Structures are given as C-alpha cells and as structure tokens.
Amino acid sequence: xxxxxxxxxxxxxxxxxxxxxxxxxxxxxxxxxxxxxxxxxxxxxxxxxxxxxxxxxxxxxxxxxxxxxxxxxxxxxxxxxxxxxxxxxxxxxxxxxxxxxxxxxxxxxxxxxxxxxxxxxxxxxxxxxxxxxxxxxxxxxxxxxxxxxxxxxxxxxxxxxxxxxxxxxxxxxxxxxxxxxxxxxxxxxxxxxxxxxxxxxxxxxxxxxxxxxxxxxxxxxxxxxxxxxxxxxxxxxxxxxxxxxxxxxxx
Length: 251
Description:
The protein has helices at about 1-10, 30-40, 70-85, 145-155, 180-190, 195-205, 225-245; strands at about 20-25, 40-45, 50-55, 60-65, 90-100, 110-115, 140, 165-170, 190-195, 210-220. By secondary structure, it is of the alpha/beta class. Strands 5-9-8-6-10 form a 5-stranded mixed beta barrel. The longest helix has 23 residues, at about 225-245.
C-alpha cells in the first residue's frame, strides 16, 4: 500500500509523469475563434503583441493562440507556447490550398510531415527544400497525435468530409497560380500548401515537442484560389477547429 501511495504522490508531483498541456495555434482569427469560445476556466495573457488563452478544452489543459500569418509568426508562437507555457504537445489548425490531384476542396489533411517549399540552397549542393547544415528538413508529425486526429475525425467529420494523411508544404506565399502549384508539387509532393505549418513543425522538432498539423482544404491553389479561399474560409476553419477540439482528448 505504501508503495502505491508513494508512486501516486510522485506522479502527482510531476516526478514521473508530466501533465499534458496542448498548445493550439491558428494563424487567423477565424481559425481559433470557436476554440477560444469553448474554453472553460479561461485565463488571458499578453506576451508582446500576442494574446494567449489558457483554459480547459475537452477536459484537457490547453493554450490557444492566434499567431498571425506567415512562418516567422508561427514559429515565434510555437516557441512562446513551449518556453513560456510549458506545453507538451502542439496542434496547428487551419485552412490550406490543395496541391495533390487526390485532394479536393473541403477535404481534411492530417500531416505526416511538413516541409518548406520555398527553401532553396541547391546552388550549394543541397536538395530542394533541404535546410543547409541541418539534420532534418522534413519534420515528421507525431504518430500518436496522427492517430488521435484520425480518431477525432471518425467522430466529428466522417461521412461528411474525406480525410487524407500526407505532407504539408509551407512558404511565405499565398499560392494562386497553376504554374506555381505545379512547381511545388514537383518540388516536394505535398497534399496541400499553406503558410505556417512547417514553421510550427520546425520549432517543435528543435524542442522535442510532438506536433500534428490539421488542414481543411479551402481552395485548389490555382487562379481561383483567392475567391475560393474567402468563400470557404469560415466553414473550413470551423471544421478544422472542431476536429482539433476533439483530438486533444485522445493525445
């Protein structure tokens, strides 16, 4: 009995088990709005020009933040969540443009890995998307978080949407050109393209933090992408957030 009590006390003190706390990042207000609205016991904190919302979601401690658009914003938010809020896992939720011929608008992509489509040091002998002098350039998502996302999808969106697993490509460009889309497809073979995921993945990889990226496909990254993205943003962002809200319970 003493051994059981001692072990439980050590666990409660964090000596054996670190309590789960999940950081959730969305670039735009539409991607985090519903998540913040669902939080209980909310504590709002300000760090620089960033507002973070700590609370409970699906019975799990989370911190939700709107990073702003682009790789630097996303990476800084991920690092802030890790260092200042001690998150143990990170989910990046939002919308994206479909690149693969197998991906359609309103499909959901769960990342297996993430790369930068706009990194190019080929002149120095590196492969396209390869980051010079770095051990990793395609950042792998955590298998347990992928499984959690799949389980959540089966409960939230199965029968309504289609789910695919694969690579997410990121760069500081909104892709709205068939020619640019084809260049990215040939360069790194992603399912979808967006502007933050690989930066979040990069920060998580450097810190040893498990992550997964969830993307609802709002457009086809072609000449019609701008209009399609704006038309589908609200629904796609809400569905990605709904999936994220459910998956945190299974991490």
